[in-house]
Amino acid sequence: MSALKASIDYKSLEKELHAALAADELYKLQNDAKIRAIEQAVPTYEHFRQMVHGAHLKPLDRNDMKPKIGVQWNPLINSAKSHDSTVLEALKKSTRNKDSNESILKKSRKTCKDFLQSWKTITDHSEKFTYVWNLRNDLQHHVFWVEIPTSFLGDFANACLQHLSKVDDITPVIEVLGKLSTCNRFDLTVCFMTRDEKSMCERLFRQLQLKGKSDESFKSTIKSLAAKYQVNLD
């Protein structure tokens, strides 16, 4: 049978078409990411590479972090829903009773969604910082093992800034910022931060620099950490 008389495999052609369209779309996204990286003057090639390779990814927005009312994430465990409600209610009470805050945090589940739900129930900035501080060793491998939502990074910088207005010890803030910088796709998260969020980070590091100026050991640490957040302190 000649090639002209052979039956046409429409499914195969459709797959090839979709693959070609996807490849073309990816090329456009990566090309736009390259241009954006150059315009933003990313500090290293690694930042550039991650920004290009993650061009097809979309950061979590604020709607993604809102609790899903009526959704049962694990239908096999009937007690999970009541457990979450108990934890959230306890965290609300913790804003009125600082003494109970630490014990409540130990009960909080360490998934990103649960973490963010609890984070939003806390209104006091110092308590927000304490909440993250108590979970600092779980941030990289449990809470933000996929990525850090961009909006959280800006909110946390604000919480740290407000917290520093009440305390003199900057060591805990530096430690948590360092822990966050080791999380997966951190460089990509920083690249996607808004101008206001980046400005908040710069204000935070300026405040750290001001409070730590009397201690030589802090200067290089703060400067190198600021560079990871794409903040230039020179």
From TrEMBL:
Residue stretches in coiled coil: none
Location in the cell: Cell projection, Cilium, Flagellum; Cytoplasm
CC annotations in GO: extracellular region; motile cilium; outer dynein arm
All residue ranges annotated as the Dynein attachment factor N-terminal domain in the record: 8-74
Cited InterPro entries: CC103, Dynein_attach_N, RPAP3-like_C
UniProt GO BP: determination of left/right symmetry; epithelial cilium movement involved in extracellular fluid movement; inner dynein arm assembly
Alphabetic keyword roster: Cell projection, Cilium, Cilium biogenesis/degradation, Cytoplasm, Flagellum
The RNA-polymerase II-associated protein 3-like C-terminal domain, residue ranges: 110-198
UniProt xrefs under PANTHER family: COILED-COIL DOMAIN-CONTAINING PROTEIN 103
Chain's role: Dynein-attachment factor required for cilia motility.
Protein family per UniProt: Belongs to the DNAAF19/PR46b family.
Subunit relationships: Homodimer.
Name of the protein in its database record: Coiled-coil domain-containing protein 103
Organism expressing this protein natively: Cyphomyrmex costatus
Lineage: Eukaryota, Metazoa, Ecdysozoa, Arthropoda, Hexapoda
